[in-house]
Amino acid sequence: MQPFSYAPVADAAAAALRARAGASFIAGGTDMLQLLQENVLQPDELADLNGLPLAGITEEADGALRIGALTKLQEAADHPLLRERHPVVAEALDATASPMVRHMATVGGNLLQRTRCLYFRDVSTPCNKRQPGSGCSALEGENRHNAILGGSEHCIAVQPSDLPVALVAVDAEVLARNTDGAERWIPVGGFHRLPGDTPEIETALKPGDLILAIRIPAHAARWRSHYVKVRDRASFAWALCSAAVALRLDEQGRVAEVRIAAGGVATKPWRLPRVEQELLGHRLDRDRVRLSAVWASEGAVTRTGNAYKAPMLQHTVERALIELGGLA
Amino acid sequence: MPEPAHSFMLTIHVNGVERQVQVDARTTLLDALRDRLHLTGTKKGCALGQCGACTVLLEDRRVVSCLMLAVMAEGKQVTTIEGLARGEELHPVQAAFVEHDAFQCGYCTPGQIMSAVGAIKEGRARSDDEIREQMSGNLCRCGAYTNIVAAVRDAAAQGG
Ligand SMILES: Cc1cc2nc3c(=O)[nH]c(=O)nc-3n(C[C@H](O)[C@H](O)[C@H](O)COP(=O)(O)OP(=O)(O)OC[C@H]3O[C@@H](n4cnc5c(N)ncnc54)[C@H](O)[C@@H]3O)c2cc1C
Ligand code: SF4
Ligand code: FES
Ligand code: FES
């Protein structure tokens, strides 16, 4: 680890001040410490956000749930209102990392977790995301964990977090504050960026922006929802593929509203509008589910190591819908 | 607010005793415990959060001490494997690990035991499936898993 200075900050204004002076933020530290240990990040200064009053979940007047950015993943997973109203989010959190990591990691930090691409985390290799213009080692290299959707010729790294995939399915938004103190809401679906030719720019945040909270709107509480995660082992691993599904059936049992997002397969949480369209207006039966899920991998570009993800994605979406619809 | 600094005089409460130690901003809690406070029961495996060998309790919650800066533990209560036994009397989870032969080389064992103590305190060791899921952040290269589950089940039944 390279030397850096450290100081806690007490409020958002102090955080902005330190960020302007070049500091990076640290919250739970679980991704930051890995990146420091591997010399992927070499900040001059760390500003510790943990003194900010941004932990905890509250219900707003209109019934929305507001999750403070510093809420620990475990605390969010255990919250009774979140579990009851938005199972997809609770299940995504239950399937995230290990209990130890969930006691440390924050929801804000989870949205900003960096990719698990092997080359990004190995400073001895070229990587456009880590070192713009150096090349992408994954295109022709070890790309079993890389993306089949949303990639570019410059980068095919997966955004590896489970939580934002679930948040896309429940129409959640992120509240960000810039260094001038201005606040804005960003839909989670528009929070992460496609790599294009600037894979080093990963989100809609500008340097120094602080995440204050995540908000799940009240209308999402009307939806049944579910998260399915497929990994190399039964527990404690990043997703090879995941599917978040939220939907509402009308009185006739037909799909009236539906949101589906995929994780582990794309450069950002990946909404599946074509699958949604195929389901709308239909009863959830096994045939309709299978015919719809086939569209999940539409547009996929596969490489030697990750071609398995295209059929896996279809089957993961199918399984999520079958389990949610009680069709198993 | 304090100015950013590179070195700190840290005060932490380790196993109920207030300790002061000079640390660099870069020092992890794991290295502070092992190298500065000479509490070498807590083990270093991967240093990336992936093996659980460095598990300690921070304010009664399981954490991996390799992914935490020591300065961020300022003023906090830390419990390590050295803090479990009462004199010569083993903690029930330690006793259950001995009873069930829940280790071979023993390298992962302090982390396993701290994680089990945490899981039982959290009320999350109610079935074998739950124990397996809750202990999944603690890897054992010797594959002592079956006996670890038996030990945790037993200790949980006795109230941990
Ligand atoms: C062994 C292991 C397994 C894991 N498995 C999974 C998994 O299965 N699924 C999954 O989703 N994740 C997994 N993770 C990742 C983990 O969930 C993230 O590391 C964690 O959520 C990051 O949160 P943090 O608070 O620790 O962030 P930090 O490491 O403190 O920060 C991460 C980044 O976010 C920035 N940041 C943090 N908070 C804010 C804020 N409020 N405003 C602006 N910027 C901020 C920091 O500057 C930094 O750039 C795993 C991690 C480990 C170590
Ligand atoms: S896929 Fe992206 S992160 Fe991975 S090596 Fe290529 S540029 Fe780097
Ligand atoms: S040494 Fe901390 S988890 Fe492996
Ligand atoms: S007993 Fe050897 S690693 Fe677990």
Automatic annotation (TrEMBL), chain A:
SMART domains listed in its UniProt record: CO_deh_flav_C
Keywords from the named record: FAD, Flavoprotein
Any Pfam family matching the protein: FAD_binding_5
InterPro entries registered for this protein in UniProt: CO_DH_flav_C, CO_DH_flav_C_dom_sf, Diverse_Substr_Oxidored, FAD-bd_PCMH, FAD-bd_PCMH-like_sf, FAD-bd_PCMH_sub1, FAD-bd_PCMH_sub2, Mopterin_DH_FAD-bd
Domain of life: Bacteria
GO terms, molecular function: FAD binding; oxidoreductase activity
PROSITE patterns: FAD_PCMH
Protein name in the entry: Xanthine dehydrogenase YagS FAD-binding subunit
Top-level taxonomy: Bacteria, Pseudomonadati, Pseudomonadota, Alphaproteobacteria, Acetobacterales
From TrEMBL, chain B:
Keyword Iron-sulfur: yes
An example Gene Ontology molecular-function term: metal ion binding
Xref: Gene3D superfamilies: 3.10.20.30, [2Fe-2S]-binding domain (1.10.150.120)
Keyword Hydrolase: no
Residue stretches making up the 2Fe-2S ferredoxin-type domain: 8-84
Keyword entries, A-Z: 2Fe-2S, Iron, Iron-sulfur, Metal-binding, Oxidoreductase
PROSITE patterns per UniProt: 2FE2S_FER_1 (PS00197), 2FE2S_FER_2 (PS51085)
Protein name in UniProt: Xanthine dehydrogenase YagT iron-sulfur-binding subunit
Record lineage: Bacteria, Pseudomonadati, Pseudomonadota, Alphaproteobacteria, Acetobacterales
